[in-house]
Amino acid sequence: MDASDSKAIEESARIIRRGGLIAFPTETVYGLGADTENPLAVAGIFEVKARPRIDPLIVHVSDRDMAERYGVFHGRSYSLMEKFWPGPLTLVVRKKQPVPSIVTAGLETVAIRIPAHPAALNLIRASRCGIAAPSANPFGYVSPTEARHVVEQLSGKVHGILDGGPCAIGLESTILTLTGDTPCILRPGGISIEELESVLGHVDIQSGVSRIPQAPGQLDRHYATLTPLDIAGEGLEEIKPNEKVGLLCLNSPVSTESFQAVEILSSSGSLREAAANLFSALRRLDRMNLDRIIARPVPQEGLGVAIMDRLRRCSVRGISGN
Ligand code: TXA
Ligand code: MG
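Above: inputs. Below: predicted complex with threonylcarbamoyladenylate.
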């Protein structure tokens, strides 16, 4: 369905209100949405994604009033909303009663954001409820940044897919929790640490790759290709004879002879452009029957932090179930 067609939005909203699942575009990645307040519908999301019930969802809202229906906001959260919403910032705050516990995986907190894609906003408004949505991919795999990525992996399992073109940001939202004394980044993403610090002064960053205390270690391998991926410079660069290897790099590599395929994320070296291209490039490499992908590190500044986070999670080996 064409996400710019108001009839498609109306039809999708009817499906959401009746408890169905709609994949929809946001500025970050495509989401798989259900009515936040319908626990049965939300259960469908976990089934379709094969997502463990301990992994809570983000509630997508269209305005602050709706945000306040679901979460408790204080002083500093208003400055963040003012500056970054609509946009790729998810705030974790204390939850309110209308949020069923399946959405928050039993936590007393809820993750909320206003997405900056007109189709997402129109869908939420027409549905007249918050839309609980994870990324629209099987659990653990690379997130979809185009409608056809969703079609390839979830068609037949959802009740509709809205096509709003490629996602402008291409990386998931930054998740910031405001439940402790100091705001803490649980997942780097589309809003950089520098941007957050311009409003908050200082933010903590949750160290290590596991970010759900209830599920230690379980989410280490994530955003992952089926093809093993190594980050260059970690002693894994040597290519064996006959090994088919693909290279993922920010801009022009020095030499490409030893590689079967090369993906350049941004010829001008722009981290913003690289972020927007990252997941499509990983999917292309993953389809080439390579033995391995080698990713060159990108600078750890701006969106580079989130890019490196995704590459690191993709490079974790050997955790079953993901
Ligand atoms: O950009 C995005 O954030 C995309 C689009 C669709 O909005 N969504 C997305 O959702 O990436 P998902 O489910 O793939 O990742 C959401 C993550 C969960 O894995 C969970 O770790 C975290 O948000 N989360 C949700 N609720 C939380 C809570 N109450 N406390 C801590 N983390 C939470
Ligand atoms: Mg996801």
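The chain has two domains: 6-205, 229-315.
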